[in-house]
């Protein structure tokens, strides 16, 4: 859901479940149809629906495999409107309606400052999902716009922490995203924060289903999503939420290098290299050992060895505390003569003050972690 705009309800950064949690039907019972495992149709609670007469669609701002996204208005509010495809036959229509209901139900369940805010949905005459509109661009477009320049390290790490917080919230609510990549991440207008915008391929962890070609984009996908040999009829593809951790590792690498993962390869070549040759994007020689450890632990082959997003957030915060604060832009002097500085005394004094400050913060962080 490529549309563009820090917390919904509750305290800053707190992951909240919707008060409508009890009103949405997220259970998908397996049934046998034509020898294949299928799911009964999901339903959407009437409380989640908006009046289509209040919706006004304007310019298209994005397009994906499953729908188009427009800027629009709901009542007096500027919003993003995702219009999903209906399908060309009854079987395809039923599948797409099920996907639509699943996405609506999941978006209505979770609230976090780093998740795009869900407003409502329509079933007729079009399948529509309405969310807040972010005036910023996607992380993908932003990275391309500044390439080959690297992001400031503070900016890159803060973006990574935003993404990890959003994913931690999803996992805390039993949701696997399966398609984490820069195209699905949007910058806020001030370009200081990132929000996760698309739940189109997300699934509940309780739902095990057949492996499908729709899942994710190969450059960012965990190998276990596609590397298993052809499954026997009726056999299910098994994976857990650590597929999202693998994708996060690729995104973090991208934030630090501002390069396309597996550049020079096609999507299928990238998939083959990752799954069957255990290749990963090359880490820069000058990368911090702490960051290298986080990235490599995220994309390790054995998914059970990958960290949780809660652990990733802690590691990234610990690394952030070791960095000197970013230098603020200096105001232009206006007839003010600067004081002479002798040698490196001013720099030494500043450096020692901050060393003490960050040592205290690291000690405080470590103490809290032990208590938890």
From TrEMBL:
It comes from the Eukaryota. This is Uncharacterized protein. The lineage of its organism: Eukaryota, Viridiplantae, Streptophyta, Embryophyta, Tracheophyta.
